[in-house]
């Protein structure tokens, strides 16, 4: 799907709150999609010896709140550039006492608590049912954990992220419910972003940078605020950049250890 049938980037990264720049040397490309304009021009540069496309999911000025992010345009733009792997870091809250601010979680499951978001590329005429049972690429997850540990980061190898609608944070009652379910992470953007990447047969990995204890119930601290999220994220941005560099350098050129490239094989009756 890349312009001129030549991939302009191998790996795509979506930046979240507090993460708007990745490269010092890059070119910007505005990508047209059938789903409108993506949140911002895509920055394309080199990292870890590979061509990487970076897109701030909320826009360059954080103008798109979580429920208004143009998820389909963002993901389609990456696919159009030739990207086959998506790295999806995000600021996130913790729901469990053993997952602390400043630590990272590489999620392996999600729970969707959003509403009204357009969450598929397949509106017909062929019914397409993509399974999200193993949404996050196992190969990329393993590489991400190893990359974080190499950078000296406390990594959690798995976790479930519950995705809430936003832009409001959870009530204490909601947070208590999520914690009681055993879910580790709370965020506002993983759905439908990660699922849409799966629909286009891209590998996707989430790296949740924990910035807070959600509504304060678990850590016995003040309830979360957006300013505090951005502050803690900023304090840990160098950790994330180190992890990304280590991860990208270890991603193999060929996808052989996952079924992500074959997502649509069993999703249709034609």
UniProtKB/TrEMBL annotation:
Catalytic activity entry: a purine D-ribonucleoside + phosphate = a purine nucleobase + alpha-D-ribose 1-phosphate
One GO BP annotation of this record: purine ribonucleoside salvage
Pathway the protein acts in: Purine metabolism; purine nucleoside salvage
Record-annotated Nucleoside phosphorylase domain positions: 10-248
Gene Ontology MF term list: S-methyl-5-thioadenosine phosphorylase activity
Site location (Important for substrate specificity): 170, 226
A GO-annotated cellular component: cytosol
EC number in record: 2.4.2.1
Stretches that traverse the bilayer: none
InterPro entries referenced in this protein's UniProt entry, alphabetically: MTAP, Nucleoside_phosphorylase_d, Nucleoside_phosphorylase_sf
Binding site for substrate: 188, 212-214
Keyword annotations from UniProtKB, A to Z: Glycosyltransferase, Purine salvage, Transferase
Keyword Flavoprotein tagged: no
Source domain of life: Bacteria
Annotated phosphate binding sites: 17, 57-58, 189
Family matches, as Gene3D superfamilies: Nucleoside phosphorylase domain (3.40.50.1580)
Function: Purine nucleoside phosphorylase involved in purine salvage.
Xref: HAMAP family: MTAP
Quaternary data: Homohexamer. Dimer of a homotrimer.
Note: Although this enzyme belongs to the family of MTA phosphorylases based on sequence homology, it lacks several conserved amino acids in the substrate binding pocket that confer specificity towards MTA.
Entry's family note: Belongs to the PNP/MTAP phosphorylase family. MTAP subfamily.
Protein name, per record: Purine nucleoside phosphorylase
């Amino acid at each position: 799907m890349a312009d001129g049938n030549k991939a302009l980037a191998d790996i795509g990264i979506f930046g979240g709150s507090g993460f708007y720049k990745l490269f010092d040397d890059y070119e910007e490309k505005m990508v047209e999609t059938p789903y409108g304009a993506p949140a911002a021009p895509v920055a394309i540069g080199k990292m870890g010896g590979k061509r990487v496309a970076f897109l701030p999911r909320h826009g360059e000025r954080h103008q798109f709140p979580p429920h208004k992010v143009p998820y389909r345009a963002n993901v389609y733009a990456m696919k159009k550039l030739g990207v086959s792997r998506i790295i999806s870091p995000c600021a996130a809250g913790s729901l469990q006492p053993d997952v602390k601010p400043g630590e990272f979680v590489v999620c392996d499951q999600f729970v969707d608590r959003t509403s009204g978001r357009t969450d598929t590329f397949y509106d017909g005429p062929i019914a397409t049912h993509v399974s999200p049972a193993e949404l996050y690429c196992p190969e990329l997850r393993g590489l991400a954990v190893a990359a974080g540990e190499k950078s000296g980061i406390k990594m959690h190898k798995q976790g479930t992220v519950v995705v809430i609608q936003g832009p409001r944070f959870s009530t204490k009652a909601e947070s208590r419910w999520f914690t009681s379910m055993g879910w580790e992470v709370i965020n506002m953007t993983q759905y439908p972003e990660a699922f849409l990447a799966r629909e286009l047969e891209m590998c996707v990995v989430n790296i949740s940078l924990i910035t807070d204890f959600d509504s304060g119930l678990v850590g016995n601290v003040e309830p979360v605020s957006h300013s505090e999220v951005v502050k803690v994220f900023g304090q840990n941005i160098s950790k994330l950049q180190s992890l990304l560099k280590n991860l990208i350098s270890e991603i193999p050129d060929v996808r052989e250890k996952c079924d992500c490239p074959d997502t649509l094989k069993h999703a249709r009756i034609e």
